[in-house]
Amino acid sequence: METVVSGIRPTGNLHLGNYFGAVKSFLQMQHEYNCYFFIADWHSLTTHPHPDNIRKSVKTILAEYLACGIDPEKATIYIQSDVREVAELYLYLNMNAYLGELERVTSFKDKVRSQPNNVNAGLLTYPSLMAADIIIHKAVKVPVGKDQEQNMEMARKFARRFNNIYGVDYFPEPASFHLSEKAVKVPGLDGSGKMGKSEGNAIYLIDDEKTIKSKVMKAVTDSGPTVPNSEKPEPIANLFMMMDIVSTPDTYQFFNEKYNACEIRYGDMKKQLAEDINLFCKPIRERINDMLTDDAYLDRIAREGAEKAAANASKTLKEVREIIGFRG
Ligand code: ADP
Ligand code: TRP
């Protein structure tokens, strides 16, 4: 069976972008692949070096993963920092990762701009840690949103380079996986760009009905089209894209026809969208709140996941050490 790996950093709650960009693929892939889904707590130190309460943040994501429907009987769910072999592979990959290529990564350049007082080496080598996460399990598919494409290219490059340098055909090159076009980039409702924690425009799975409504009602719109069948400007296209993701095709079509006939009432559309988002989130939200009360269960899942992931990782590391020339 082919192997799949993906992870999310515990820097906040899961939002609709995370769900439709990544987690929804996890739910499907767990039935068809040998899956490893982890919580990237080491990665979170690159932006949050002195976390308030990292164990609580990790526990939250774990509860959210499970509440979404990731089945620990099918997929291995673990915490990155529980598998220390990842750090050793990261060290080896870093020896063959070059300053120039790491400095050219867009997300690194963005972070240099957004956190100029904390341009740390972990931030620079973020892609080699991510590559280690993936290739340690010899994964061939990685479900992530479009924003991870450059990191994925780096992961493939590091896998290829390892094979070339040591003259082996050991690590497969991992491919990004997208469930559908819609999953590639879930939009924000603030006019432009994607939904994201750092963008400050996220609708979280844990948000209650009132919060969802107030966020959706604030979505950026315009005064409406005056020419039938006109192209939608970005903020409106984003609103429709969100509706396409969470509402029924009938609902989408209804508002689309209204738009094309220049009869759209954005207030009604937003009310419907908020309702549909709430309908989607409600059962997940209830399960998250339940999960969060069961520490013993969450601890057990993390412990069992760590054992499984570490067993597989240590097998890889033994072989990697032999390939490089260390004792296995
Ligand atoms: P954020 O951008 O909010 O910090 P992360 O970077 O932690 O979210 O993303 C975790 C996963 O969710 C990644 O696979 C990422 O590609 C995916 N993801 C995040 N936001 C979106 C989005 N708006 N559309 C599609 N996928 C997304
Ligand atoms: N970089 C990913 C993000 O920001 C998180 C991540 C870390 C990841 N390691 C990974 C995703 C390995 C997939 C595979 O969302």
Our Rg estimate from Cα atoms comes to 21 Å
Strand order of the largest sheet: 1-2-3
| Count of folded domains | 2
Compute the number of strand runs. Answer: 5
Task: Identify the CATH homologous superfamily of the largest domain.
Answer: HUPs
Low-confidence stretches: none
Could you spell the SSE succession in H and E letters? EHEHHEHHHHHEHEHHHHHH
Category from helices, strands and their pairing: mainly alpha
Q: What ions, cofactors and ligands are bound? A: adenosine-5'-diphosphate, tryptophan
Number of DSSP helical runs? 15
Please indicate the percent range of residues in DSSP E strands (runs of 2 or more): 5-15%
What's the CATH architecture name of the largest domain? 3-Layer(aba) Sandwich
Terminal Cα span = 26 Å
Question: How would you characterize the largest beta sheet?
Answer: 3 strands, parallel
